[in-house]
Amino acid sequence: MIFSVKPRLSEKNCFTFSLFSVGFPMSQRISHSLLDPYLALPVKRYYHWWHIPHWLPPEGIVLIGHLFAILGGVGLAFSTQFWWGGLLGAIGIVGNHVADLLDGTHARTTGQCRNGGELLDHFADPLSFSYWLIGIAVSCGRLDLGIIAVVGLYATAVLTNIKAKLTGEFTLAAFGPTEFKTLLALYGVLMMSLTFHWVPMLPSSWLVALWSYSLLIVFGIGQLLMHLFLAVKEVNEKGGPIDTTEWETVRSKKQILLKKQKPDNVLTSAFLDHSN
Asked: Could you give phi then psi for residue 129, rounded to 5 degrees?
């Protein structure tokens, strides 16, 4: 299905124009993020300050960001027990976000834009959020809430990608990845303060973690249901032509072709072998 969307280059989706000449679609990126103008754009604008080697592939930056995400998840898992847990969680989340902002800029600047890098980047993003949500679930001893949170996370990711396929627009909500990461980083700092007893008026760190996690899940599920309703309405109004084609069972076709090429019996096979 080809969408009639005017293609444009972005820092992460660096397709060449030759792709469009052969009919490859490209989703337009639209961000309604509240914090991107203040947190994302400055990091990209001062890309040269980071002195990233030109030989480093963008996929390497994606890997570094993913390692930061794992570090953040481990830190959040210990955030209710040790002061360094919340600090480690906040550092991991911030490091992941900076890498996520720089990988596309680096690819565009050094001419290393590849579809594989784009795929890996989007593949790693929901995994990073999963580490953090599971880490918080471990910290408050509620893996049942962790399952709900991760299911809601991946449901949101699937909804976003399918909607982008049908409408040709990859849209980020006002409370999107940047806002979520900022909230989790601040949560890590709060947990560090609680374990240090810098905020004596608040309850125990475990209780704060449980309340915060529960509210986050309720908010996330509510946002998911609202976006699902709006997405169904939007794809019906703005989506491309309806795909009415059937699935092509390639394996069945191959089996039929092989069966046609196979000799009917052993005698025929022996005759053909003798003839050759």
From this structure: -60, -35
